[in-house]
Automatic annotation (TrEMBL):
Record's cofactor remark: Binds 1 zinc ion per subunit.
Recorded superkingdom: Bacteria
InterPro entries the record matches: 6-PTP_synth/QueD, 6-PTP_synth/QueD_sf
Top enzyme category: lyase
GO biological process, one term: tRNA queuosine(34) biosynthetic process
Catalysed reactions, as listed in the record: 7,8-dihydroneopterin 3'-triphosphate + H2O = 6-carboxy-5,6,7,8-tetrahydropterin + triphosphate + acetaldehyde + 2 H(+)
Upper taxonomic lineage: Bacteria, Bacillati, Bacillota, Clostridia, Eubacteriales
Protein name, UniProt field: 6-carboxy-5,6,7,8-tetrahydropterin synthase
């Protein structure tokens, strides 16, 4: 199995609803998104997918989030669905999964709020 990873960054503001602490106030981050995809077959050039093509797919999703107030965007505008790093990772995971060519599989999405902290999401295969 081959695995590729790309990284994109975007800036956005958010606040955590029903949270006791500083993050309940409006604040922003320069978010770093790290996305991994996998597959078994390489193309005639020896690539799983061109890095540029994968960056473009991730860029479509990041473009919707960049320079926004995340709380105003669906699904984060829904009650009880805060725009946390965990929820962002899950959201990006499923958005990208729907855009990938059928011969590729999603690996993991990591969302970094700062250089020191991140959350990740992936589907675990259970027996």
């Amino acid at each position: 199995m081959y695995r590729l990873t790309v990284i994109k960054r975007f800036a956005a503001a958010h606040r955590l609803v029903n949270y006791q602490g500083q993050c309940a106030r409006l604040h922003g981050h320069t978010w770093t998104i790290e996305v991994s995809v996998g597959g078994e077959k390489l193309d005639s050039c020896g690539m799983l997918i061109d890095f540029r093509a994968l960056k473009e797919l991730v860029g479509q999703i990041v473009g919707e989030l960049d320079h926004s107030y995340l709380n105003d965007l669906h699904p984060f505008s829904e009650p009880n669905f805060n725009p946390t790093a965990e929820n962002l990772a899950r959201y990006i995971y499923y958005k990208l999964k729907s855009l990938l060519p059928s011969d590729l599989t999603m690996g993991e999405v990591r969302v970094w709020e700062s250089p020191d902290v991140c959350a990740s999401y992936r589907e675990d295969i259970r027996p």
